[in-house]
Amino acid sequence: MKLWQKTSIITWLLAPFSLLFWFISQIRVALYRKKILKSYRSPVPVLVIGNISVGGNGKTPLVIWLVEQLQKRGVKVGVISRGYGGENKVYPQLVTPESDPKLMGDEPVLISQRTHAPVAISPNRQQSIELLLNQFELDLIVTDDGLQHYALDRDMEWVVVDGERRFGNGFVLPAGGLRELPSRLKQVQAVICNGKNANASEHAMHLEPDFAINLKTGEKRKLSEFTQPVYALAGIGYPPRFFNMLKELGIPLADTFSFADHQVFTAGMIVPKLSQNLPLLMTEKDAVKCKAFAQENWWYVPVSARFSEKSTACLVRMVMDLIKN
Fold first, then answer.
1. Annotated binding site
2. Beta strands in the chain (DSSP E)
3. With contact defined as beta carbons under 8 Å apart, do 44 and 156 qualify?
4. Fewest CB atoms less than 10 Å from the CB: which of 8, 22, 112, 133?
5. pLDDT tens per residue across span 13-55
6. Binding-site entries for ATP
7. pLDDT surpasses 80 at 56
8. CA 109, CA 7: separation in Å to the nearest integer?
9. Quick count: other Cβ atoms within 10 Å of Cβ 289?
């Protein structure tokens, strides 16, 4: 929300509620630390990839990158997710590449499709871990989101920060977009900055597209070939990131359509907006929900996380050391 990016009179009107939110959250954290509230300890190491702010910061591409890096090194990785946005009511559930994102959530299905790693969903992370360990021999559990889910003990925490928006106006909810204050970053093992403005202590991550893939035929086309105007659609935490990426690639945008994160799509929500017979480009996360009714000229743009050699070596090494210990 733009309101959370700056301080205004509305910010100060909501500030008392933010103070209450922060106070309650601190009490909750203290109760877990003092073992008054019980937390679950997994028999295998757990790495949490989360954020301290509301909205998409790029956690899922980072999860995919990490799983692929570890798979290359022979590590058996399982992924758990809350399955946010899915309509499934029975938990826990295993997610496969063929799972319906409407039921299981778009991000778990995307992770399964890209990595083919075991993936389980449940609001109760313990249930997901137990389901995975009952069916797979795993060296590590990666949880996509869940930094504030203190009912789950964790061995390592990585936080993703949006390099463009950073921490907005610096307030916690509802006056700002933070779930926890930036001081929380001092307690985590790695801070990953997605995009611009990475600090010296952060690992800079860039999301790079290579090509577009047709939703109906699977045809791959270089993005440089999209020289005519196109429509662009994004139902992610911060849609402008996708639109700006296309602009930076020199792709002319006839119009853009922003939707809420985890939006469930129907043909009737999209087709009437396309008044001209132009290609439609969307994110890979949106594509998993649109394949059933895709048109001939609908394409999605997969992105992959990229790090410097130094950051790659550092991040992978700390996880490998965790597993060995």
1. 53-60
2. 46-50, 77-81, 93-95, 119-121, 140-144, 156-162, 190-194, 203-209, 211-214, 220-222, 230-234, 253-258, 280-283, 298-301, 303-306
3. no
4. 8
5. 999 999 999 999 999 999 999 999 999 999 999 999 999 998 7
6. 53-60
7. no
8. 37
9. 23
